[in-house]
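hey can u check if this looks right to u? its 166 residues, i copy pasted from the old doc so theres a chance i mangled smth
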Amino acid sequence: MLWEIEVQPAAREVDREAARVLAASHDLGIASIRDIRATHSFLVQTEADVDKLTRAASRLLVDRVVETHTIRSVASIADDETGNECHLLNVLFKPGVTDNVAESTRRALQDLGLDIEAVATCRKYRLNTDADISDLARLAQRVLANDAIEHVVDGPLTFDSIALGS
């Protein structure tokens, strides 16, 4: 099963990545983007259940003082995020590009006793729904992703496994 462990700043914390991206969009003269929320996630392919993943995430992947997290199956994400009042952009490494954080995370989760098949990392940006599509494309190209090694997925993730090299 493919799980997503999504990590976000705690409610009382400043979303520094969102602030950085919003400032960069304004520097580019993009006016239609007014609201951004940023998170990062670990896509984990495993047969471990949600309780084991929750314990591992709390112990290893989340700074519980300044962050919170949610864990859900990737299959359920499309349903959850389709009706949200935001425009969602996911930034992932392109197939064949080494994801060092994912590889370190996979080994650390295995050290905790979980049977992990694969891990990938993802950065997620939720933007105001009325943002201009051309502004979103410009932001993705100029600020969010390095086109040489990353690609942007517009909308919820819909795959059910982490393919070799992705």
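The two ends are 16 Å apart (CA to CA).
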